[in-house]
Amino acid sequence: MSASATAAPAPPKVLRVPEHTVEIVSDSGEGAQKCGQIFGAVSAKMGNGVWTVELIPAEIQPPARVPEGASGNRIRIGERAVTNWGDRTNLVIAFNEQVLLARHRVDALADDCVILIEDKWVRHDDPDIVAQWDAAMKELSSKPYRIIPVAMEDQCLTITDTPRKGKNMFALGMLARIYGRDMERIKEQIAHTFRKKSEEVYKTNVALLELGFHWAEDNVPLRVEIPTHASDKPLVVMNGNEAIGMGAMASGMELCAMYPITPATSVTHYLSEVFEKFGGTIHQAEDEIAAVGAAIGASFAGKVAFTITSGPGMALKTEFLGLAVMTETPLVLVDVQRGGPSTGLPTKVEQSDLLAAMFGQTGDAPHIVMAPATIEECFHIMITARRLAETFRTLVMVMTDANLATGVTPYPKPALDEKWQAAPLDLAPVKDGQKPYDWDPQTGLSERIIPGRPGGMFTLTGLAHDDRSKVAYSADIHQRSSAMRSRKIAVLQSLLQPPKVYGEDSGDLLVVGWGSTKGAIEEAVDRARKEGLKVSALHLRFLSPLEPGLKAIFKKFKKVLAVEINYSDEPDDPYVTEENRRRGQMSILLRNATLVDVDCWGRVPGEPLRPMSILEAIRGRLPRGGAA
Amino acid sequence: MSYTCGLLPVLDTHEDHQYEMSEYEGARARWCPGCGDHSVLTAVQRLLAAEQLIPEQTMFVSGIGCSSRFPHYMKTYGFHGLHGRALPVATGIKLHRPELTVFVTMGDGDCTSIGAGHWLHAMRYNVDMTAMLLDNGIYGLTKNQTSPTTPQGFKSNTQPYGSYLPSLNPIEVALGITNASFVAQTAEWAPSHLYATLRAAYKHKGFSFVRVLQRCPVYTPSIFQKAVQDPDRIQMLVHDDGVVTPDLEKIYKAQLHHDPRDLAAARALAEQTDRIILGVFFKDPSKPRYEEMRRVAPRTPAERVSLLEKEFSRYAV
Questions:
Q1: How far apart (Å, rounded) are the C-alpha atoms in residues A453 and B95?
Q2: Which long-range contacts (CB under 8 A, 24 or more apart) does A524-527 make?
Q3: Neighbouring residues of B174: CB distance < 8 A, sequence distance ≥ 6
């Protein structure tokens, strides 16, 4: 059933659509991610909105041809800015039928999805593989997919002896033809991607690219046109981890101490390449505890330092995080959240570290917790985080997640400002009588003293201490110093603006989110409003302190629903009652702060929320009589 | 002296001032009477005065335990952090501020038990600092629990029938770590040797590991009793490149000429159990130092912005 051209093809069908979603899936190591990344980057450069997500198995080289090993990229392209990964995929290139099944089984594919699949398996010598192929085709036939078999490896063999390594470029060529992508830009991108490899590698890849392009020209009867709009502002395109790394450099921080953990580490992959040029150091410590310890040591001795980790790493750092708060040593911690608890889902998105971040330290450890909602905000939040850590002399946690970490989207290039950076160290003698904790009795704020300043010598201690940093166990001192550390959080809240409601500022239902879900929630709310539902959205960047004015905003809606990528009981689950229901993590914070009966809806599928599932939740949770 | 972080060398105005030992004294030490920590504190204050270290450019970093109160009793900058975690903090300080002089004090539980992983790696990083293991073979602050260096058979609150395992030999461990550059052992009851050893450690460029044998007057008063009473049970390593204490030659007659560059001989000595050996086991100033390898050229805000502009152009759409 090879689909190589036998007769003159009919003119291809041309689809003109405002958006389309593409996936390339393969076994790990077959280059599907590279293909998807280049396709996404070129689409952005051509003036499309783009959101790219990596599909990553947990192992480096899982066994070949198993659904769990599916690796690749999903690229949503739109006429306008794309803020999330969308619902289901419209076109897939799959390198074998097992990885395709993986996507089918999680309902990732639209019913009318076009599937271009490597078909060498049907001609395989091993009868088991042929049988697997047949079984897969049978399973896939439950949906009216349009399957186009492609002899990718046979085609690639005409150019390279190692087709398994080259067919990602053949696939890219096919996509270039189907979506009318600019081949010159693709070649530039290939040159950039393989800049560390030989000219020969580049040439082979380009030859494979062109082969795929021409093959699709003759054999794929589909063209997809998505209008492009050149941006009037210069744009940059990157993933959230790169944006975090760049933001760290823009903030003038000079030391990042870390220990490898997925999905956080790629920030330091990026920084390791460039940070030294910027006068910065990445210290890969011997473990998570040492990493945060080194960052705190550096911060104490000078400029604010940062550490970056994911849930299990944050758990290990807990004792040191409490020390940073207790000693009022500024520190920025980035938690790129993954599925938990325990090792959980190392490569998959979740928002379930929030309460651990807020309350995971022993004792009372007030600190700042923020979450960027977009990849652009991943850049800017690092600058804010550094400043807040310094000004408020405390720990600032930046909660991002695997969706932002690996998602790629264009955003306006920031107008850089030198003032974002830390000031040079002031090593002048301390003022007469200046103490290590000269707490302002109103605000709890104080100026810190760093080593090197004559006359300021003191010993920092994690023990209860007075304003001279002297160990003190008396009740009144601990009460006072606790109040001073706590007060700073209230002071920060007093400086924040109330958040802006997306949509009407009153109605039947207000959907509240935090972190990476903003795009998907707002898209769902837009669709709900088109259906006539009175729904608005609110998105929080600050979780500690919470942004001000929430109660007043909530009161204008009949119902408030927190939507998060963390687990919560459904109200009608067996044994679950109003009193024992385990609720979404942010919803607990919101209920506590506002005394409003905030409902919650959460899912932990190991993938970003789809707008359509949020829309279904909105329909299901609308207060009675609220539907249009 | 080198400066990072855009520091200006405007602070070296101390040439005329002669620091007295008393100027390094912080809060009054609250260790038990007879605690070996007092000896170490005195030796360290004497060392700082002898070397005329500038108090505000000197740091003492510690973990948790009796010996970790040390920074409070100095009038320098101090960091009294978490149990077992002094070394990562000290490493971070030196990475960002290599011009600061850093001392670390740890107890035996701190260094060889809960913080053992950091100990191994700090020795391998070989960051320039003086790390003292104040080893009295017991957890004192938490009241008499067995530590890794508690002698086998010693009865404590956690192992009341006698500690089960042979005690850990920290010198043997230290000498086994790749890139170790200075390993020495001294004792609180030999003050001039203690002082000379700490001074040699301070002068060594790299991570200097000094184990100080101590008695806890409350829980382990007699662990070195035989050696204290009979100096012949102690062997002194002497070498011009190590430590020489002529005033002790009459007391400690067992003297061994040991070249601290000889790692194999040092390891053989460390394995000996019949005598307590004091002196510099190993020293190699040519070992690479992490903070030197990682030294970066400081950047001004304007330079950073222009570099960042270039970086963004790589990601331009």
A1: 18
A2: A524/A611, A524/A612, A524/A614, A524/A615, A524/A618, A525/A618, A527/A611, A527/A615
A3: B123, B180, B183, B209, B211
pLDDT band at B11 (very low <50, low <70, confident <90, very high): low
C-alpha count within 13 angstroms, C-beta hemisphere, residue B66: 29
Strands (E), B86-170: 101-107, 129-135
Residues A25 and A130 in one domain: yes
Read off φ and ψ for residue A99, nearest 5 degrees: -70, -30
Strands A19-26 and A71-78, by their bridges, are: antiparallel
Residues A96, A72 contacting (CB under 8 angstroms): no
List, for residues A172-212, the tens digit of each pLDDT value.
Answer: 999 999 999 999 999 999 998 888 899 999 999 999 999 99
CA–CA gap between residue B2 and residue B298 (Å, rounded): 12
Query: Quick check: is A473 in a domain?
Result: no
Q: Contact A298/B95, CB-based, under 8 Å?
A: yes
Provide the pLDDT for residue A628. 45
Are B302 and A246 within 8 A, CB to CB?
A: no
**B6 confidence band (pLDDT: 50, 70, 90):** very low
What fold, for B21-314?
Rossmann fold (3.40.50)
Ramachandran category for residue B134: left, alpha or beta (phi over 0 → left; psi -120 to 50 → alpha): beta
CB of A228 less than 8 A from some CB of B: no
The total domain count for chain A is 3
Which percentage of chain A shows pLDDT scores above 90?
Answer: 89
In sequence order, what are the residues at sequence separation of 6 or more whose Cβ sits closer than 8 angstroms to the Cβ of residue A485? A325, A326, A328, A364, A366, A394, A444
With beta carbons under 8 A apart, name residues in chain B contacting A278. Answer: 299, 304, 307-308
Partner residues linked to A114 by β-bridges: A91, A146
Please judge whether A301 and B56 are an interchain contact, meaning their C-beta atoms are less than 8 angstroms apart. no
Question: How many angstroms separate the CA of residue A315 from the nearest CA in chain B?
Answer: 16
Distance CA B155, CA A530 (A): 77
Nearest CA in chain A to B75: A457
Q: How far apart are CA B308 and CA A591, in angstroms?
A: 42
Predicted local distance difference test score (pLDDT) of residue A610: 96
- Interface membership of A417 toward B (CB under 8 Å): yes
Asked if residue A50 lies in contact with residue A235, where contact means CB atoms within 8 angstroms, the answer is: no
Q: CB of A218 within 8 A of CB of A385?
A: no
Give me the mean pLDDT over the A486-497 stretch: 98
Q: Does residue A462 belong to the interface with chain B, where contact is any CB pair within 8 Å?
A: yes
From the number of C-beta atoms within 10 Å of its C-beta (0-12, 13-18, 19+), residue A154 rates as middle
Dump pLDDT digits (tens) for B226-279.
999 999 999 999 999 999 999 999 999 999 999 999 999 999 999 999 999 999
Question: How confident is the model over A142-158, as pLDDT tens digits?
Answer: 999 999 999 999 999 99
What value of ipTM does the predicted structure carry? 0.96
- Mean pLDDT confidence for A381-387: 98
Query: How far apart are the C-alpha atoms of A136 and A334, rounded to whole Å?
Result: 42
Check whether residue A140 and residue A77 sit in a common domain. Answer: yes
Residues B128/B207, Cβ–Cβ less than 8 Å: yes
Q: Which domain holds residue A55?
A: 13-225
Say yes or no to pLDDT of A565 above 90.
Answer: yes
Q: Where are the alpha helices (DSSP H) in A426-578?
A: 475-494, 518-530, 550-554
Chain A residue with minimum CA distance to B26: A458
Environment class of residue B293 by beta-carbon count within 10 Å: exposed (0-12), middle (13-18) or buried (19+)? exposed
Question: What pLDDT does B179 receive?
Answer: 98
Handedness of CA B188, B189, B192, B193 (dihedral sign): negative
Smallest CA–CA distance from A450 into chain B, residue = B77
CATH code of residue A340: 3.40.50.970
What are the residue ranges spanned by the domains of chain B? 21-314
Nearest to A279 among B97, B118, B296 (CB): B296
- Which pLDDT belongs to residue B13? 54
Residues A351-366, mean pLDDT to the nearest whole number: 98
